[in-house]
Design brief:
This protein has 203 residues and is mainly beta. It has one domain: Cyclophilin-like (Cyclophilin). It has two helices and twelve strands; from the N terminus they run ββββαβββββαβββ. The strands form three sheets. The protein has an eight-stranded antiparallel β-barrel. The protein has a two-stranded antiparallel ribbon with strand order 1-2. Strand 10 and strand 11 form a beta hairpin.
Length: 203
């Protein structure tokens, strides 16, 4: 579930992966090589319109490779945005329309210390309390969420690995949908917002 804490007037948040992460193996930190694709662009075709995302391979190489692997194998096809909080973020990539959790690969290392900020329109990885626990789920920032950024000796942060090139109007529309509580989870859209496909766009 999402926990929001007000600290010194600033909204800080713990964005959890709702059990999407499998049992960790070894030290639980996976550094994958980039997939066999030079593209840094992915189109999310959703039930409410298309969102085109530009990934930052240089700033977040492990996270970008991870996202491209999931997208390339069709993992995200048929998943939903299962948590929607206006003026905060829309989160998806780990649950089916029936709210079933998808099996994932091992977690990846946190790359939040990369100079990128959780500003409106950026895409970042959801994770559990362990900074190195991100797997499949991601979120698109609907507002400037700098309290989610890395701060040395204070916050491990949430890894930003790209930004929306086209379709912020779609993000805005998704953020405005009516939500409810389902399967013990808050902020779930009443009408499922489906990711029909995640397509890597050739350079």
């Amino acid at each position: 579930m999402t926990r929001k804490l007000w600290v010194s007037g600033l909204l800080t948040a713990i964005i959890l992966t709702c059990g999407c992460t499998d049992q960790m193996q070894g030290n639980g930190k996976l550094e994958r090589n980039a997939v066999n694709s030079d593209s840094n662009t992915v189109k999310l075709e959703t039930s409410m319109g298309d969102i085109v995302i530009e990934l930052d391979r240089q700033a977040a190489p492990v996270t970008t490779a991870n996202f491209l692997e999931y997208a390339g194998e069709g993992f995200y096809d048929g998943t939903i945005f299962h948590r929607v909080i206006p003026s905060f973020m829309i989160q998806g990539g780990g649950h089916t329309v029936k709210m079933e959790k998808k099996k994932t690969r091992d977690p990846i290392v946190n790359e939040a210390k990369n100079g990128l900020s959780n500003k409106r329109g950026t895409i970042a990885m959801a994770r559990q309390n362990d900074p190195d626990s991100a797997t499949c789920q991601f979120f698109i920032n609907h507002a400037d969420n700098t309290p989610l950024d890395y701060v040395e000796n204070a916050r491990p942060g949430y890894t930003v690995f790209g930004k929306v090139l086209e379709g912020m109007d779609v993000v805005d529309a998704i953020a405005a949908v009516k939500t409810t509580t389902r399967n013990g989870m808050d902020d779930v859209p009443v009408e499922p917002v489906i990711i029909k496909s995640a397509t890597i766009i050739p350079e």
